[in-house]
Amino acid sequence: MKPRIGRPPLQRSPHWLLASLLLFASSDAAIAATDAAASADAVKALTIHLENHADASAGELTTQPFASVSLTKTDTATAQKALWESHARRIRAERSTEIKDRVIHDGDLRMPFAYDIFGEKPAGGRSLFISMHLSSTLGS
């Protein structure tokens, strides 16, 4: 079987197109002509839309009126954070079964995984160690 090469992680996000547009809209030329009140209103509309339509696709987001408004640098950062948090909530919800079952699915492919936690959690957080190997007990 040939190895599958996936799309870059940014393209997996349903909001990657809008995030790209927001980055473009925050260029220096666009910032000079940005209306701060319109920018703030657009971010508020984006946030409300994401709360009410958690499964919104990038295509759907780009057709919304807020997607064509130039944003200030501060509002661009706020919009990016809102898009990321919406994406992360959706992924946590969609993938929670895989984490519970410790098997990641990609189409017909499945990859079992395991993890162990040792000791008490240090104040600065845990260290992550990854060990990858093929086990004959996992099958093909």
Overall shape: elongated
Oligomer: single chain
Tell me the helix content.
40-55%
Number of strands: 2
User: What structural category characterises the helix and strand content?
Assistant: mainly alpha
Give me the side-by-side strand order of the main sheet: 1-2
Cα end-to-end separation: 10 Å
Q: Compute the CA-based radius of gyration.
A: 20 Å
How much strand content do the residues show?
A: 5-15%
Main beta sheet, described?
A: 2 strands, antiparallel
Low-confidence stretches: none
How many DSSP H or I helices? 6
Summarize the structure.
This protein is 50% helix and 6% strand.
Provide keyphrases for this structure:
elongated; mainly alpha
Account of the 3D structure:
- The chain has 140 residues and is mainly α.
- The protein has a domain at 9-97.
- Helices cover 50% and strands 6% of the residues.
- It has six helices and two strands; from the N terminus they run ααααααββ.
- Strands 1-2 form a two-stranded antiparallel sheet.
- Strand 1 and strand 2 (109-112) form a beta hairpin.
- The longest helix has 29 residues, at 73-101.
- The N and C termini lie close together (10 Å).
- The model has no long low-confidence stretch (mean pLDDT 80).
Topology summary:
Elements (H helix, E strand, L loop, with lengths): L8 H4 L3 H10 L2 H5 L3 H17 L5 H5 L10 H29 L1 E4 L2 E4 L28
Antiparallel strand pairs: 1-2
Helix pairs in contact: 2-6, 4-6
